[in-house]
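Figure 3 (text version): structure tokens given as input.
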């Protein structure tokens, strides 16, 4: 039986179309799934702007459009015979989209005609199961499974950090335990994840310093992850608005009593931030340029004298692996991390195209879309003022207020049940 789907497809640069069509019947080595939630990533915006120039985009996208969206979760509908011993219809799933199958850059949301998260239904190809990238998910909600992918990127960013050992050349992986961590441009949705993660997992630093130029984002970050809470975990946490600081280097160095930072994360693609981070590294310091720039010629000046004499080093990370995603799901289920603080807006599948096209201007955190719902892009902060015009928003507002203003399982359940009539 061929399943109808409604999906947001890309035909090329700046060409997104929400269309309804039939999926082919699944093969014996494929799985049909119902997509419930997808979180929108800046990477999809970059794909939309670059079109065929994007490394993951197929060159025949104009005739064989791809389904966008790669941070998604939902229910398994039909299982091909090859996988019936491992998966069954009706169970929830999570997904690791960073496949890297046999050296290919193909990935859901970028490369496949029938496999992506901005769809009501899609087909998961055999390589996903072969690689162990389709994961069983037993959580009470769907959105935490969608957000496990961006959280896995954060975890991967921590895991890839390293420090040298001059005696045997075996690098010590991860951030330096008891060291100083600096997160530049870190009050956005991904930065918040980078603040919370080391409080509960991996090597624990002695100090975390977070900078940003947006006071409202910094205020929200401090409300959600207060320095007092970090202190209980043995971490000295500082939030710094660097907008009007004449000498950022001096201010940030003073917070470490002149020692510098063992681990630096650059969370915004700004040359000045990368260069500042380079200057602030301690001996054997490691800098992770985490933010992905659109400009292929983006560069910054690095101090090679320090690289030579003080062993500073630079790397970049994008995405996480399956182990990172499993860790994200485990930490979320144990309520040690709260991916929900990344979410600022909710929408239906009908609003995704406009949201993606305008993502840099929206000043949003993570946007959660629900594939079987039509709903305009709506900020969680606006639920309260919409309660008078729609009883649904009154219920959603009450639910979010009961959870520190955050999206939550109860709110998701209310939304999904409302859409079913």
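Below: residues designed for each position.
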């Amino acid at each position: 039986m061929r399943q109808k789907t409604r999906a947001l497809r890309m035909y090329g640069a700046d060409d997104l179309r929400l269309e309804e069509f039939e999926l082919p019947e699944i093969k014996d080595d494929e799985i049909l799934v119902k997509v419930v939630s997808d979180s929108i990533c800046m990477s999809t915006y970059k794909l939309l702007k670059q079109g065929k120039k994007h490394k993951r985009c197929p060159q025949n996208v104009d005739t064989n459009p791809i389904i966008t969206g790669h941070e998604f979760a939902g229910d398994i509908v039909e299982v091909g015979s090859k996988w019936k011993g491992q998966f069954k219809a009706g169970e929830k799933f999570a997904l690791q989209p960073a496949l890297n199958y046999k050296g290919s850059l193909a990935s859901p949301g970028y490369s496949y005609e029938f496999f992506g998260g901005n769809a009501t239904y899609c087909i998961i190809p055999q390589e996903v199961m072969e690689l162990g990238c389709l994961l069983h998910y037993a959580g009470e909600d769907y959105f935490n499974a969608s957000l496990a992918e961006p959280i896995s990127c954060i975890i991967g960013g921590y895991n890839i950090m390293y420090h040298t050992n001059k005696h045997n050349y075996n690098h010590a992986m991860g951030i330096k335990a008891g060291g100083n961590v600096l997160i530049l441009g870190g009050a956005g949705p991904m930065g918040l994840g980078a603040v919370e993660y080391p409080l509960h997992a991996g090597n624990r630093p002695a100090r975390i310093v977070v900078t940003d130029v947006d006071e409202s984002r910094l205020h929200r970050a401090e409300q959600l992850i207060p320095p007092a809470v970090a202190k209980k975990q043995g971490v000295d946490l500082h939030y710094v608005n660097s907008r009007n600081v004449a000498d950022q280097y001096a201010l940030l160095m003073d917070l470490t009593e002149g020692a510098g930072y063992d681990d630096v994360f650059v969370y915004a693609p700004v040359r000045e931030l990368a260069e500042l981070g380079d200057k602030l590294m301690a001996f054997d310091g490691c800098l992770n340029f985490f933010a992905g720039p659109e400009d292929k010629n983006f560069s910054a000046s690095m101090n090679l004298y320090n690289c030579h004499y003080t062993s500073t080093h630079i790397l970049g990370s994008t995405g996480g692996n399956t182990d990172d995603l499993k860790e994200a799901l485990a930490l979320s289920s144990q309520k040690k991390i709260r991916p929900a603080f990344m979410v600022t807006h909710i929408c239906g599948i009908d609003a995704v195209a406009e949201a993606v096209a305008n993502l840099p201007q929206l000043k949003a955190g993570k946007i959660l879309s629900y594939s079987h719902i039509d709903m305009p892009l709506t900020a969680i902060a606006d639920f309260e003022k919409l309660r008078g015009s729609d009883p649904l928003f009154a219920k959603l507002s009450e639910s979010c207020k009961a959870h520190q203003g955050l999206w939550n399982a109860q709110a998701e359940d209310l939304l999904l049940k409302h859409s079913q009539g």
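The chain is about 30% helix and 25% strand.
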